[in-house]
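Hey L., structure's done. Input below.
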Amino acid sequence: METIYINSTDEFIETAVLNIAAAAERAIRNSGSFNIVLSGGETPGPVYRYLAKQNFDWSLWHVWFADERKPDPDESVLNWKMVDETFLNAVSIPAAQVHRINTEEGVNKAAEQYNLELQKVNEFDLVVLGLGEDGHTASLFSGMDHNNDKKKIAAFPVLQSPKPPLHRVTMSISRLCNAKEILFLVSGIAKRKIVRALEEKKEIPASYIKGHISTKLLYFQSQ
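Output:
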């Protein structure tokens, strides 16, 4: 993993978008489409807003989600809602190419449906992830068993999340790793300790996520 330390908010946003743009250009040049996995949380919102201002042939983009929360009943917790408000509403990606995890009807059904949907793509071009202070990424938390990865399950329900909301759906470690590139977006002084743990290859959930070509972590400490 390559850690890139960033000195300002503007530099963080611009560097993140440059990395996403480069991955998109490579994928479209090589295969004619771009399959990107996005994550929720506070950190990527400004990145998505800036990304939406770029000039791409959005018809070639396919958007996937690393995980999703079940609204209980507040829809504001949905990762899709945040991505829609900051990015999707401002670009012209065809609706059929935005692959939501529909948790509204329950996480077990949503995980089953998303596993079927994920059969449409083999290797992702880029996976964008966050990093929690506890080392979790997507909805992969410490203490989870790895039976889903052993069984090659792409997405599975989380019924007792250590963080609210309790019910979620997440891609498995092995499915997230089936990607050319991984890009972690991390900000805040409170994340300094966990970034160091990741650099030291401590056994935390995020440490298992690695791309086939590259794995980068952008870190802006001051906030």
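The domain at 2-220 is CATH 3.40.50.1360 (Rossmann fold). The mean pLDDT is 94.

-- N.
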